[in-house]
Every structure is written in structure tokens, then in C-alpha cells.
């Protein structure tokens, strides 16, 4: 059996995989977690029922709607930190204040920013017949407060899927 990331490294990591919708958070997060031998959690699955109802009726969430959800994800990061285990959680984290809430669960939170151009992401969404409209994607890019190098590790998603996974794994392994 292959060693997990925690077994190979002296330090466990809590990792936020962030980016706009369609950047590949879930697909990439699952593949990276499998490669390094840790848990992947899709943050969207932790939205409370009232958020799901609001989104299902076609309304966007506001910062107040997101706060409790982000606090729950921060608690998840905190539980993994207390257990000294590595975990990857996918969450758009579009605004710095959202990422600040998530860091309350782990001040040393590592952030992988899945960075791609609008046209590339729109093309990929259209190829897979994603439900997201160009207007919604535009809104995501308008909301995005892209993290700087001091806050996150930018991952270029214009490369092949395998290359993106390699970039993520190499970035995490280089942190030790």
C-alpha cells in the first residue's frame, strides 16, 4: 500500500482548492487527494438548506448567506488540523474575506488557486454542457479577488489535466 502524504511528510496540510465555477475544483481536488492519499471534501455539499433553496430558485447568495457555510468549512479545517491530518476542500473562495473566514479554522491554510482565463473556462463549461451561463461566469470573474503570491499558489489550468495535477502535488510537496 502506498504511503499517504502525511506518512511521507513531517507536516500535515489543510488545503483550500479555490477558483471560479468551472475551474475544476472538484475534479482536480479529487485527483490530487487520491494522488497524495488524503480526503477531499466538496465544500458545496455543506451549504445549509436555506442556501440551496435560494440558489435553486435562481437567486445569488450574498455575503450574509455565505458566512455560516464558510464558518462550517473553517470548522472542518480545524478538525483536520486538530487530528493532524491532511485534507483538501474545494470552495470558490472568491473574496479575500471568505478566505479569511476559512483561515480561522487553520491559520496555516494552504491555498491552491486554480487560475484560468474566462474564455478557457467558458469553453470547457460549454464542452461539458455545464449548467452555468456565460453571465454567471462573468459575475464570478467580477467578484473574484484573486489572491496574490503571498496568499496562494497559482496553478495554471490551461495545461493538460495531468499537468495540473502534477503542479498541485509538486506545490504541496515543495512546502516542506
Task: Please sum up the structure shown.
The protein has eight helices and five strands, in the order H-E-H-E-H-H-E-H-E-H-H-E-H.
List keywords for this structure.
176 residues, alpha/beta, Rossmann fold, five-stranded parallel sheet, 5 strands, 49% helix, globular
Structural write-up:
With 176 residues, the chain is α/β, with parallel strands linked by helices. The chain has one domain (11-174): Rossmann fold. Helix content is 49%, strand content 13%. The chain has eight helices and five strands; from the N terminus they run αβαβααβαβααβα. It has helices spanning 5-8, 25-36, 49-56, 63-82, 96-103, 118-127, 134-143, 161-174, and strands spanning 14-18, 39-42, 87-90, 110-115, 153-156. Strands 2-3-1-4-5 form a five-stranded parallel β-sheet. The protein starts with a helix and ends with a helix. Its EC number is 2.7.1.12. Belongs to the gluconokinase GntK/GntV family. It catalyses: D-gluconate + ATP = 6-phospho-D-gluconate + ADP + H(+). InterPro entries: P-loop_NTPase, Shikimate/glucono_kinase, Therm_gnt_kin. This is Gluconokinase.
Report the structural category.
alpha/beta
CATH architectural group: 3-Layer(aba) Sandwich
CATH topology: Rossmann fold
| Average pLDDT figure | 90
Number of strands: 5
Main β-sheet description? 5 strands, parallel
Element string (H = helix, E = strand): HEHEHHEHEHHEH
Classified by CATH, the class is Alpha Beta
Fraction of helical residues: 40-55%
Morphology call: globular
Distance between the termini: 23 Å
Radius of gyration: 16 Å
Secondary structure tally, helices: 8
Give the full name of the CATH homologous superfamily. P-loop containing nucleotide triphosphate hydrolases
Question: How many separate structural domains?
Answer: 1
Keywords: ATP-binding, Kinase, Nucleotide-binding, Transferase
EC number: 2.7.1.12
Catalytic activity: D-gluconate + ATP = 6-phospho-D-gluconate + ADP + H(+)
Family: Belongs to the gluconokinase GntK/GntV family.
Amino acid at each position: 500500500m502506498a504511503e499517504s502524504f502525511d506518512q511521507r511528510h513531517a507536516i500535515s496540510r489543510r488545503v483550500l482548492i479555490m477558483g471560479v465555477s468551472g475551474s475544476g475544483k472538484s475534479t482536480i481536488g479529487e485527483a490530487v487527494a487520491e494522488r497524495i492519499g488524503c480526503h477531499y471534501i466538496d465544500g458545496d455539499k455543506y451549504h445549509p438548506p436555506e442556501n440551496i433553496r435560494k440558489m435553486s430558485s435562481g437567486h445569488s447568495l450574498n455575503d450574509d448567506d455565505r458566512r455560516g457555510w464558510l464558518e462550517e468549512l473553517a470548522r472542518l479545517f480545524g478538525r483536520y488540523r486538530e487530528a493532524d491530518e491532511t485534507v483538501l476542500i474545494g470552495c470558490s473562495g472568491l473574496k479575500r474575506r471568505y478566505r479569511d473566514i476559512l483561515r480561522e479554522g487553520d491559520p496555516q491554510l494552504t491555498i491552491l488557486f486554480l487560475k484560468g482565463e474566462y474564455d478557457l473556462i467558458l469553453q470547457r463549461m460549454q464542452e461539458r454542457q455545464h449548467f452555468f451561463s456565460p453571465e454567471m461566469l462573468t459575475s464570478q470573474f467580477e467578484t473574484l479577488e484573486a489572491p496574490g503570491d503571498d496568499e496562494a499558489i497559482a496553478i495554471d489550468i490551461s495545461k493538460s489535466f495531468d499537468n495540473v495535477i502534477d503542479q498541485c502535488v509538486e506545490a504541496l510537496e515543495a512546502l516542506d
